[in-house]
Specification:
- The complex is a heterodimer of chains A (about 110) and B (about 140).
- Chain A has about 110 residues and is α/β, with parallel strands linked by helices.
- Chain A has helices at about 5, 35-40, 55-65, 80-85, 100-110; strands at about 15, 25-30, 45-50, 65-70, 90-95.
- A 5-stranded mixed beta sheet of chain A has the order 1-5-4-3-2, with helices on both faces.
- Chain A is globular, with a radius of gyration of 12 Å.
- Chain B is built from 5 helices and 5 strands.
- Chain B is globular.
- The two termini of chain B are about 15 Å apart.
- Classes of the chains: A alpha/beta (about 110), B alpha+beta (about 140).
């Protein structure tokens, strides 16, 4: 599965440009503490978070995560969106809660 | 391959640029043909150490050497020091500021994560400053075949 397939759901809105939408997706990781993300997330995971700051991108880039989904309709600041377009990490916003996002992704076929 | 030696300045509370050293090191390690798994391990250690200097110290620097056989990096800061290294090494123990916590740090997992990924870790601290030395050995298995 690829990031672009996630965008077929009406719940997920791409807020960065389309660089990186061909990234492979192989699992879900949900956390708002970056050290836990660093310690436990795997390459090509989707990160679900409410953490609206630029360090999320640093961690996503180091780990080669596939994309970041901001749950609870979090408003993401412009500096983050500009930076992510250089890093090829798509940012997606959803009005779903974190748990609803996990369930929705699972139903779409993201199993891990 | 030639030794890659760099010295980086780290500003206190400069959260926006935290992670730059890890990111530049990652690029160099990939250029040298090291495996993704190995690069991940090293960059996690460097990232955590870099964040620690940014969020806990008055500022400092990092000295990096990458050779064919090992990577070593020393982080040196100008204080205020770690009160109890034993407590700081305990998973979940945190003295992070509200600013650090707002930015997703301060889980108390930094030093435990660093210890888990590094082959050698030497940590000394006084009120004048903290020094953290990390070494990662590179074997032939760590290069992409």
């Amino acid at each position: 599965m690829k990031v672009k397939n996630l965008l077929e759901s009406k719940h997920f809105q791409l807020i960065s440009d389309d660089s990186g939408i061909e990234n492979e997706v192989n699992g879900i990781f949900s956390c708002d503490l970056l050290s836990h993300v660093l310690g436990f997330a795997n390459e090509h995971n989707i990160l679900i978070t409410v953490l609206n700051n630029i360090n999320v991108l640093g961690v996503a880039s180091l780990l080669d995560l596939s994309c970041v989904i901001f749950s609870h309709n979090i408003q993401v600041n412009e500096a983050i969106i500009i930076k992510t377009n250089e890093l090829n990490i798509p940012l997606i916003r959803t009005n779903l809660s974190t748990s609803e996002t996990v369930i929705t992704l699972h139903k779409m076929g993201v199993k891990n | 391959m030639e030794t890659y030696a760099k010295n980086y300045n780290i500003e206190r509370q400069d959260i926006a640029n935290a992670g730059t050293i890890a990111s530049l090191t990652k690029r160099e390690l990939k250029r040298r043909g090291l495996t993704r798994e190995f690069v991940k391990k090293v960059t996690i250690g460097i990232y955590e150490a870099e964040i620690n200097v940014v969020i806990h110290s008055y500022g400092g620097d990092a000295n990096l050497n990458v050779t064919d056989d090992f990577i070593e990096i020393t982080f040196t800061d100008r204080g205020p020091g770690i009160e109890s290294i034993d407590e700081a090494m305990t998973a979940g123990f945190s003295t992070a500021s509200p600013l650090a916590i707002e930015n997703g740090f301060g889980a108390g997992m930094g030093l435990p994560n660093i210890k888990a990924v590094s082959d050698e870790m030497l940590l000394t601290s006084s009120k004048e400053g903290t020094k953290l030395y990390l070494k990662f050995y590179i074997s032939s298995d760590n290069y992409e075949s």
